[in-house]
Specification:
340 residues, alpha/beta, Isopropylmalate Dehydrogenase, 2 domains, eight-stranded mixed sheet, two-stranded parallel ribbon, 13 helices
Length: 340
């Protein structure tokens, strides 16, 4: 029931996702009357769907604390997350209130052992394909230990989605030199460099322009700078699209040039389409929760469902737990050695 367009986009996205992945089954949580009305226009989706009526819907402007008080137990958002906890669902996708979704997911699913704060990880289109970027908005600030947690979780996600044995990791910084940046970033870089972890390759510091180049498979940062980078990239893509649209319609010759190069422009449009990489996963929880952009359309919501499907199919929770346990074991052994 959340997002800018409610059930129409959610159910439309589910229909597209089901066409591409027929094994998917859906549980829709919210106002049954509103859901059933939209679902009736998707006859192929109806047989693989169930509707769970919920009395409360979390609004887009509800504060997280308010949403927890008002929506716990009764809201569609809470009950969808709870279905992941109980095993009734393999993952949850919502286009609703981000703060409320994170608060409810953390409260219901709890964080994994060794994780202090969950992180939101997004896919980023690059010149080489895609990379994982986290955190893109769950946390404001992060210490060295949390940045290392983000690196471990991001590496596990990249291995799951891209079938990489040892993804490359970069820490977003104001320069690539080791003397630059916040102390937390420099400390995290030193630890990653010294430990030589088996499931990732530490590249070093990366700058903002490395995001689009695809310099590394995983870019790690804290949520404030990560969210600004994400929104800047989205805005720049829209700006370029508007510039091209205006330029191509400016003169008769420009219109003719557009027709001659239409296939190239179509390819560019597809590459820059933010719907292709819609969806951010909340890593560090005991379950998979995907946050879809609230303003996306059905195609974008289908992409968020696809992300959840791939994360569940590749057992992302188990991969992260294994990596965290390995790193925790190294730190514990080191601490005992120092104590001796």
């Amino acid at each position: 029931m959340g997002g800018d367009h409610g059930p129409a986009v959610v159910i439309g996205g589910a229909a597209i996702a089901h066409e591409r992945r027929p094994e998917l089954r859906f549980r829709f949580y919210g106002d049954e009357t509103a859901i059933r009305k939209v679902l009736a226009s998707h006859p192929r989706l109806e047989p693989v769907s169930s509707i769970i009526h919920c009395e409360v819907s979390i609004s887009m402007d509800d504060k997280p604390s308010q949403a927890l008080r008002r929506g716990r137990w009764k809201s569609g958002m809470w009950r969808a997350i709870e279905a992941v906890k109980s095993g009734e669902a393999d993952f949850c996708v919502s286009a609703g209130n981000t703060g409320a979704l994170m608060a409810m997911a953390k409260f219901c699913l709890r964080t994994m052992s060794g994780i202090e704060r969950p992180a939101m990880a997004a896919l980023w289109p690059t010149l080489k394909g895609e990379s994982v970027v986290l955190d893109v908005g769950a946390n404001i600030g992060a210490d060295a230990s949390q940045l290392i947690d983000f690196a471990l979780m991001g590496a596990a996600m990249a291995r799951a989605l891209y079938d990489l044995e040892r993804p490359s990791i970069g820490l977003l910084n104001i320069g690539v030199e080791e003397v630059k940046g916040m102390e937390e970033v420099k400390e995290a870089g030193q630890i990653l460099r010294d430990y030589h972890l088996p499931n990732l390759v530490y590249h070093g510091f990366v700058e903002g322009d490395d995001l689009g180049r695809g310099t590394v498979d995983v870019v790690v940062t804290e949520g404030f700078s990560g969210n600004i980078a994400l929104k800047t990239a989205e805005g720049t893509a829209k700006q370029i699209a508007e510039y091209l649209r205006a330029a191509m319609g400016r003169t008769l010759l420009a219109k003719l040039g557009y027709l001659l190069a239409k296939s190239a422009f179509d390819h560019l449009r597809e590459k820059m389409d933010p719907r292709k990489v819609n969806g951010a996963v909340m890593l560090g929880l005991n379950g998979i929760v995907i946050k879809s952009h609230g303003g996306t359309d059905a195609e974008g919501f289908a992409a968020a469902i696809a992300m959840g499907h791939d994360m569940a199919a590749n057992e992302i929770i188990g991969r992260i737990a294994s990596d965290l346990n390995y790193f925790g074991g190294i730190r514990s052994k080191e601490a005992r050695s120092i104590g001796e």
